[in-house]
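To the wet lab folks,

You asked to see what we're planning to order before we commit. Fair enough. Below is the target structure as tokens, and below that is the sequence we designed to fit it. If anything looks off to you, flag it before the synthesis order goes out.
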């Protein structure tokens, strides 16, 4: 009996891994599946946002974080000029600081919409080179908010998010503009830019 149970457990684990791998190779199914997980949190744990907002946001982050290519997005936010002039240590530091900024912004935005439904438009087909767009509508009791995820396809056939446009607001471009403005204020001193970004991230988070 124990031998049978172990075999069943192995088969279940193998099947779960296969399903997960297949989803990761389909950008529409990947975004839809993870979005529906977030909807469950938004609709069943909305009171948690009042009693413990950090725990609520962390639940959203845990779903969302593995989907993003933070290395590529962070480089885009810095821009070619500042990315190339930064040291390896500064690049790594900014990736970690930026991760906090993006995840907090995304989780905070979703939490404000509370009870919601997310519908993925599987017929929407916009591809450019190796970037595919996945379009969704976030439906609340009062309005409909369009969300577009830009996902990059990698050589192994998997996809990761490289930008998000929420209700017309391009998060990648917004963060890029903030970095450029900080660069001007801090005389293009990368270390000072990161320090101020870190201060803002932890203050807001």
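Sequence we intend to order:
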């Amino acid at each position: 009996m124990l031998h049978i149970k172990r075999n069943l457990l192995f088969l279940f684990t193998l099947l779960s891994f296969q399903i997960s791998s297949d989803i990761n190779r389909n950008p529409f199914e990947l975004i839809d599946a993870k979005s529906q997980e977030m909807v469950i949190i938004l609709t069943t744990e909305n009171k948690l946002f009042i009693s413990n907002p950090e725990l609520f946001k962390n639940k959203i982050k845990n779903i969302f974080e593995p989907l993003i290519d933070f290395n590529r997005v962070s480089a885009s936010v810095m821009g070619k000029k500042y990315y190339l002039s930064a040291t390896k240590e500064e690049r790594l530091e900014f990736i970690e600081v930026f991760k906090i900024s993006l995840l907090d912004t995304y989780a905070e935005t979703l939490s404000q919409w509370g009870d919601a439904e997310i519908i993925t438009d599987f017929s929407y087909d916009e591809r450019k080179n190796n970037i595919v767009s996945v379009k969704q509508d976030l439906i609340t009791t009062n309005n409909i908010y369009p969300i577009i995820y830009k996902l990059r396809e990698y050589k192994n056939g998997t996809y990761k998010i490289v930008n998000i446009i929420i209700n017309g607001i391009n998060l990648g471009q917004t963060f890029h503009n903030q970095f450029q403005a900080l660069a001007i204020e801090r005389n293009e001193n990368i270390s000072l830019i990161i320090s101020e970004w870190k201060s803002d991230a932890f203050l807001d988070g």
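Structural context that might help your review: The helical segments are 2-24, 27-44, 48-51, 53-64, 70-85, 88-111, 171-185, 190-204. The mean pLDDT is 83.

Thanks,
Computational group
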